[in-house]
Amino acid sequence: MAATLAAVSVFSGLADTAYAQQRLSPTEIAARAAVTPPFSEERNAATGFIATRTFYIGRMALTCKALLGEEESFPADMVAKWRTANASYARATARYTNELLKSIPDSLGAQALASYINSTVRRDGQKAVDDVLKGTEEERRTACMKFVILFANGQYNVSDKEPFFATLQELVQGFDW
User: Fold this and answer.
1) 4: pLDDT strictly greater than 50
2) Which stretch of 1-15, 85-99, 155-169 has the lowest confidence by average pLDDT?
3) With bands split at pLDDT 50, 70 and 90, how would you rate the model's confidence at 9?
4) C-alpha closest to that of 13 among 31, 33, 37
5) Cα(89)–Cα(67) distance, rounded to whole angstroms?
6) CA atoms of 19 and 118, how far apart (whole Å)
7) From residue 111, how far is each of 114, 116, 152 by CA, in Å?
8) What whole-number distance in Å separates Cα of residue 104 and Cα of residue 117?
9) Euclidean distance between CA atoms 117 and 112, whole angstroms
10) What value does the mean pLDDT of the chain take?
11) SS (H, E, C) the chain
């Protein structure tokens, strides 16, 4: 799975637009807010990483449910287990996203950013699932079994090997809003 998702940082290209006596569009307002302290591209990317990991686990479990003959609750159970094991990161990034959206003075800009984040997470998460589950039904079943084993061994849990670990730790430890 591509671990370097920068779910919100694409807005930063718009953030360079000068306020210079012009009316900013909702998207430009959101872009400016997304990189104005305490928000940053690095924090946005770390938050996108956690959101995409959560989506990936849920979508893999949903897709693998039938291939492995699992119970209906399998996807929700997998996500719940992951969120429990990674609770501090899930809570911190959810809080960060919530604060980011609340900081945008224009409701249309906040809605546009929320929509963008959701569609980016879904697109990138689904691409990661599709990349893993290529091939025949037997190859897909094998990939699903590998996913379940890796999950059970904690391979999808946040660790110091993650590209955004330091930033995630910073978000967990909190900072002044």
Assistant:
1) no
2) 1-15
3) very low
4) 31
5) 30
6) 27
7) 5, 8, 36
8) 14
9) 9
10) 83
11) CCCCCCCCHHHHHHHCCCCCCCCCCHHHHHHHHHCCCCCCHHHHHHHHHHHHHHHHHHHHHHHHHHHHCCCCCHHHHHHHHHHHHCHHHHHHHHHHHHHHHHHCCCHHHHHHHHHHHHHHHHHHHHHHHHHHCCCCHHHHHHHHHHHHHHHHCCCCCCCCCCCCHHHHHHHHHCCCC
Which tokens sit at 9?
């940082």
| CA geometry: angle 85, 62, 49, nearest 5 deg | 50
* pLDDT at position 110: 82
Q: In terms of C-beta density within 10 A (0-12 exposed, 13-18 middle, 19 or more buried), how is residue 176 classed?
A: exposed
Distance CA(113)–CA(26), nearest Å, equals: 9
Question: What is the identity of the amino acid at 48?
Answer: G
CB 110 within 8 A of CB 30: yes
Nearest C-alpha neighbor of 171 from the set 50, 43, 41 = 43
